[in-house]
Every structure is written in structure tokens, then in C-alpha cells.
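ok so dumb question maybe but i'm new to this and my supervisor (M.) told me to 'just get the structure for Amino acid ABC transporter substrate-binding protein' and walked off. so i did the thing. is this what she meant?? sequence i used:
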Amino acid sequence: MKKTKKIVGIITLVGILVLAIAGCGKEEEVLKVGMELKYPPFETVDEEGNPTGASVRLAEALGEYLDMKVEIIDTPYPSLIPALESGSIDIIISSMTITAARQEIVDFSDPYTTSQLMMLAHKDSKVKSPADLNDPEVIIASKSGTIGALWAAANAPLAQVLTLDEEVTAVLEVAQGNADVFIYDPLSIIRHQENYPDTTVAILEPLPNTQGWGIALRKGEDDEFKQQLNDFIQEAKTDGTYDAIRAEFLEDKIKEFEDQGLDFFF
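this is what came out, is it supposed to look like this??
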């Protein structure tokens, strides 16, 4: 009887060891998050070239929530949605504004910010408010694939849209008077106006027909996954995740908004 118990004990121990070894060899599921790392303080790199910023921290928090390892895939902004469609990335967290045009191609989570669109205008431009944009004489400079270009196409079809590959180039066109306005989020508009204070003005009147930033996922993705994203966003706003991100990356930006009389959007 003692021998039988000893054999059973050995078999049990071996079974436990086998399961432990198998568990150690199990690969952690990876969540590939696409973002263009050219938009500090949300998506950028540190001195060693590692992804960092508010969006990166949000992605990492999402990975912890889903019990998945996060891999940040640096992707040019115009290529983000094609990369999502092809399966090269699983989701997009890249300060991407939810629009009707984009919703025809991809699905979005609930907004995780309330960011609106505003304008940087040349000081001598005829554009003084969003109502002035839909005019054949108005030139709107925008970065390819961004919300500025999409908004202009949908809301100011009479205007001339100058599409450029880089944000800084589009801004320079306005600063030099070659374009009337540059459309983007208020954080960028304030920063660019500070860079060109003599030739530009910030028009901090929100443009109509926009929503906040959302997490993009493939069209028709599992509804359960989308619900997980929405649950995470709701929880992150109340469990201290957003507070920690603001404290690490956004304190000076919050002050800039307060100085302009604006509510911060993150």
C-alpha cells in the first residue's frame, strides 16, 4: 500500500512539473498597436529611441487590462488604416479623430478624449472663423491622411486643399502666407502659433462635425473585443490611469489650455 501511494505521489509530482514547464513555455499573446511616433507628448520616442508618450502609456495600460504584451508598431499616419486592414497591426492608438468617413472603413471604440479641431491662420488671411472656410479662394494646408484633410473635404468642398507629407511643411505654408489655414487639434495649433508669432494667429473656435479620438479596430471586429476596449476606457478614466498619464506627460499642456480659457481634452 505504501509503495502504491509512493508511485501515485511520484506520478502526481511529475504531472505538476510537466504542467509547470508547459506553462513557462507558453507564449504571451501580443497586441500590436499602430501609431506614428512623431506627435509629442502623445506619440514619440525617448532619447534611446524607445516609444514613449501619453498614447504609449495608454496602450501599455490597455495591455495590462487585457493581459497581453503590447508591441508598438511605428507607422506613418497615412499608412495606419491600411496596416490595420491588412492585419499588420491589431489596433490604432494614434490621436485619431473619429469621423464619418473613417467609420466607413474601420470601427472605433468610444472616444477616449474630447479633442476638437481648430485653426492656425496666416495673420492676413480672410479666414476668421470656420464659416469662412468653404470658399474657392481659401487654401487649406493639411498633412496627408490626417483629420484636417478629411474635415476639409467633407465640410469645405469649395476650398483648395493643399495636401503635404509632413505637418511642419503644412504649417510653414501658412506661416509664409502660401496657405490660409492649417487645421488640427488645439494642442498643435497653440504650439505652432508660438513658433510663428509674427505671421500666424490661432483661431480657437472649434470646427463643427467632429468627435474625439478613438481606438480604431478592424471593421466588423468581434463585438466582445470592442466592448473590452470601451470598458477599459471607462475604467481608465476613473481608476487613476488618466491622472497618472496627465502627471507624467501633460501637466504643462494643461496649463497652456487653462491660459487660453480652454478645457483640457484628455
